[in-house]
Amino acid sequence: MFFLLSKILDLVLLPTVWLFGLLIAALVARQPRRKRQWLWAAFGLLLVLTSPALSNEAMLAWERPAVPLAALPRHADAAVLLTGISQVDKSPHDRVYLGPGADRLTSALWLYRAGRVRRIIISGGSGAVLGKAHTEASELATLLRLGGVPNSAIIEEERSRNTHENALFTKQIVAAHPGLDTLVLVTSAFHERRALGCFQKAGLRPLIFPAGFRSSDRSVTPDYWLVPSPTALENWSLLIHEMAGWLTYKVMGYL
Questions:
Q1: Angle between helices 52-62 and 230-252 (to 10 degrees)
Q2: Is CB count within 10 Å lower at the N or C end of the chain?
Q3: What does the chain look like in DSSP terms, one character per residue?
Q4: Among positive and negative, which fits the CA dihedral 155, 160, 166, 171?
Q5: pLDDT, tens digit, for every residue of 204-253?
């Protein structure tokens, strides 16, 4: 039930849905003054949502900052790679289709090839409402093998459908594999806050290695402050979704 409700909440929290709602309200308003108010509200919201500077400042405040490689142990036991970056519903199913956030995969591979971690735990089945032919864990394992990671260094967790379950099922893997004491949690920077909270609640104490940054360094150029950007709208949608997810998890006791 929680899984289905979370999908409905995702839809309600889309800023584009808010804009659409304001425009519909303006369309059906009978009084000209009320119609103008709804249109001005939609215009003001659009200005905020398409501002690169405002969306970037919000992302900088929410994302966990990048961690230097030197700050990690020389040989951690495993990197925990959270999924949510491949398109398991895309056909033909003769390859792996990566979407936004693929830097999670390359960061985990980087840690392994640099000798910073001995193994990689891939945690994630499918976040889709309907079942899929492949799990994300199995697809990302294929890419890791192509990147030179041997099967013996890959552990797949294919049951989890959300971050809460990522933490619970990873804890079961750790319990079943003695020696996995030092973990490095690899996920997108905007998601690292919620993911770390879930893992700590489950009794794990991983180090973090944020990836897939949506923020950039601040700029003083006019386009950063004045030119509307569709990417800003996308970032606001992502950030609002993640903040709502964090709050929901807090209420549910997952953090």
A1: 30
A2: N
A3: -HHHHHHHHHHHT-HHHHHHHHHHHHHH--SHHHHHHHHHHHHHHHHHHT-HHHHHHHHHHHSPPP--GGGS-TTEEEEEEE---B-TT-SS-SS--B-TTTHHHHHHHHHHHTTSEEEEEEE----SSS--SS-HHHHHHHHHHHTT--GGGEEEE----SHHHHHHHHHHHHHHSTT--SEEEE-BTTTHHHHHHHHHHTT---EE--BS--------SHHHHHS--HHHHHHHHHHHHHHHHHHHHHHHT--
A4: negative
A5: 999 999 999 999 999 989 889 989 999 999 999 999 999 999 999 999 99
Summarised one tens digit per residue, pLDDT across range 66-120 is 999 989 998 999 999 999 998 888 888 888 899 888 999 999 999 999 999 999 9
> What gap in Å lies between CA 7 and CA 242, rounded to an integer?
13
pTM of the model: 0.88
